[in-house]
Amino acid sequence: MSGIYDDPWAYELACSFRDVAAEVDVLLGWCAELGARPASVLELAAGPAEHAREFARRGLAATALDLNPAMCAYAARAGARIEVVQDDMTRFDLGRRFDLVVTMLDSTSHLMTLDAFVAHLRRVAAHLSPGGLYVVEMSHPRDRLGDDPSVSTGWTVERGGVRASVRWGEPSDRLDPVTQIADDHVTMTITDGDGTRVLRDVVPYRFWTATELDAAIRLADGLGVAARYGDFGTGEDAVALTAPEAWRMITILRRA
Ligand SMILES: C[S@@+](CC[C@H](N)C(=O)[O-])C[C@H]1O[C@@H](n2cnc3c(N)ncnc32)[C@H](O)[C@@H]1O
After folding, report:
1. 35 conformational bin, left if phi > 0, alpha if psi -120 to 50, beta if neither
2. What's the whole-model pTM score?
3. Ligand 1: which of 107, 111, 137, 205 to mutate, judged by most atoms within 8 Å of the beta carbon?
């Protein structure tokens, strides 16, 4: 079955609610606050590699890695000069190190077990320069463990005369209480001058808590927590992970 990750153009359109340039500003701001000035960056589970492409526009040597061949092909021809590698974020071995590694937009929800998360972190540590930083953006645990858990979210985007409404997760989607995995039903309705098409997919999602992340970091060895945030923002605009308005779980790890 062809899914939303097999249609990188549609996936990128669905994610165009983000301001990628502003997020990269913040990522580089966090690096500066931690005394780092990265010259090279590796984006993991990069999909269309929007962040890697933005880093490249700013002069960093950027590499994007993803498992999906369609995403890799799209990222490679999307404009900015980046290196693209098709590989698994739990097994890759690129034979060199990077000053910064990033994994954006909850892509670690595709790591289904603690073993997979630990393997992923070990691969990251092996690819970081001494003192190098790893920024991992995940959804906030409040989404699932708060007073009002949400399993479904919807939004609308418009770009270049194309309008899309996206529903990620259905109210009937259930998180398995033992495995912490849900099959998220995704529907994207795309309308342009030629008509409307509907893209449907089921995307397996693994929910990670903050304490499980801590356990994975400790088991992986070689990485320590340098900072945690609840949204994109630096200095006065920084949002603590514990703040009521926090809606992301962003962790910055430093290679020991
Ligand atoms: C939600 S998309 C996020 C893409 C990108 N990080 C972004 O911010 O737009 C998740 C991506 O993870 C990729 N992926 C899933 N499992 C993977 C794995 N084991 N190794 C590498 N990439 C993986 C998928 O192919 C997909 O492109």
Report:
1. left
2. 0.96
3. 107
Condensed to tens digits (0 to 9), the pLDDT of residues 35-59 reads 999 999 999 999 999 999 999 999 9
What does the pLDDT look like over 66-78, one tens digit per residue?
999 999 999 999 8
Cα 193 to averaged position of ligand 1 atoms, centre (Å): 30
Question: What are the CA-CA distances from residue 66 to residues 16, 59, 231 (Å)?
Answer: 19, 22, 24
> Residues lining ligand 1, CB < 6 A?
5, 15, 45-47, 50, 66-68, 71, 88-90, 104-105, 107, 110
The CATH number for 143-206, chosen from 1.10.10, 1.25.40, 2.60.120, 2.20.25, is 2.20.25
Q: How far, in Å, CA of 36 to CA of 97, rounded?
A: 15
* Residue 238 CB coordination number (10 Å): 17
| Atom number of ligand 1 nearest to Cα 107 | 10
Is 4-142+208-255 CATH 3.30.565.10? no
Q: 47: CA distance to ligand 1 center in Å? A: 5
- Domain regions of the chain by residue span: 4-142+208-255, 143-206
